[in-house]
Specification:
Elements lengths: L3 H10 L18 H11 L4 H11 L3 H10 L11 E6 L2 H5 L2 H12 L5 E6 L10 E4 L2 E4 L3 H10 L30 H7 L5 H11 L11 H9 L6 E6 L8 H8 L1 H15 L3 E6 L4 H17 L14 E6 L9 H8 L23 E5 H13 L1 H6 L8 E8 L5 E6 L4 H7 L9 E5 L19 H6 L8 E6 L4 H15 L5 H19 L7 H17 L3 H5 L2 H10 L21
Helix pairs in contact: 8-12, 9-10, 11-13, 12-15, 19-20, 19-23, 20-21
Amino acid sequence: MTEVTDHAAEVRSRRVPGVEARAGKFPGPSLIPALNAIQARVGWLPREELEELARDARRPRYEIEGLISFYPHFRTSPPAKVALHVCHDLACFLRDGDARLAELKERYGDDTDVELVEVSCLGRCDIAPAAAVNERPVQMNEVDAVVEDARVDSAGRATAQTRDEPWPNDPYPAGSGVGERYATLRALLDGALDADDIVATLKESGLRGMGGAGFPTGQKWELVRRMAGTTYAVCNADESEPGTFKDRQILATQPHLVLEGLLLGMAVVGAEEGWVFIRHEYGPEEEVLRTEIEALRAAGVVGPDACGSGRRLDVDVFVSPGGYILGEETALLECMEGHRGEPRNKPPFPGNYGLHGRPTLMNSVETFADVPVIVQRGAQWWADQGVDESVGWKFFAVSGHVERPDVYCVPMGTTVRELIDLAGGVTGGAAVGAVQPGGASSNFIGPDQLDMRLDFGAAAEAGTMLGSGAVVVLARGTDLLAASTNVLRFFRNESCGKCVPCRVGSTKAHELLRGVVESGATRLDDAQRGQILRLEEAMRKTSICGLGQVALGPVVSVLGLDKGGAAARDQPRPDGASEQPER
């Protein structure tokens, strides 16, 4: 990363309200890529390797230890020959994951070659219950064979799931390559398109951030474009919320659109450097992305003379060291700077104080992937793709009790019922009991709301949100209190611990709910209900970021369903400038 030292000095010389706590943090290049490289090479982080890194980078060991202790991907002891990670979150829970996990514990619990660990969502909810063997994602019926392969030699490598036909948001024909693609970027760089016109088109199109908050994309680009000096751009590909895997498939099938959208954003706001920040569990998709970037470099589309324009555009991949909290935009930036991934207080926002204190354009995978077709075909074309007043196309990851869990691209405004039908209906022909329409952060809705349109406004009116684009379906008869307690466990486990309301509140609430569920009860008594509602209010009003603000929302919405209502309260709206309110 270039110019880091100069930027750090500049940041220290400026007084920016709200960032005083950052004064004591170490400036300089992030050590996280180096730690990732050591672990990839050795399998863990031996002391001698860390000491060598500290000497070479001239950084204190305690800084390095502070990073290692925060991020769950880093290991400080030698791994077993076989690392078997099994997801225990909602989509897997609904597909009999607890029983499969118990079977695996019985089979491998005393096996010294196998380290079995329950983990948070692996982003493979379409094959739930999901597992990974030495980081290779596998279906449950493949576990034994892959474990034996890993015991003898290697678990092998998984490949990304591709498709033959382009998604409807792809303006390029099937089978086209770098030479035919990136036409919008080339037009901008050679002067055929004007940056201000692109911003105007995005604003007119109504495109909103697809990572959660729904902030208007054109407005965000305009705000960053107005900022002076060095700017950066980051694509947030760290989707880690249970039930969410749409970005994984967009990366696998549309790396060219994600990268073209990111590069267009860079060119519009004046950034020379951009990154795709991707979760480490997405190894197959990371490989697809790196292959595409190498093709761009070979073709001269990126580099010191991008498309022969004389402008520098460099793009790279930054692999997350783990942790759902990194989906929150400021925690992500802290990680990229080489700090513990704890959210910053806002304001200031990344658009004016982002990476290394510089203005930073941040959008999600799906948002960037939609930009090229909108610029090529126009704002009206995009608006016409939606249903009624809704605009554009929308990707949804559908999982849980459905016949065909998968990623679906449908017109914005499609109803929940229509999307479930597209996924083959409820498993075994059962009736719908409840749905989480926007991922683990969203409030559950009941079967009486299946005709809710999947759009930002309609979801908010129904007391929930579009969120991360994950629709999790629960069949009638599912214990909703147990399901929502499972969701709360995820948030408790993934809390960064920075703020007391989130750290303590999620723990106290989960202890209470776990006790109720384990007792066999399916409802809370009045005292328990009152305590949960008080904890929810405190967390929603006082937590620093969206994780704590929404953590108890799904539980409270289940209490509303229990009373026959659709939801117990309106979905909270963490700051609209955040691309990932749910994190």
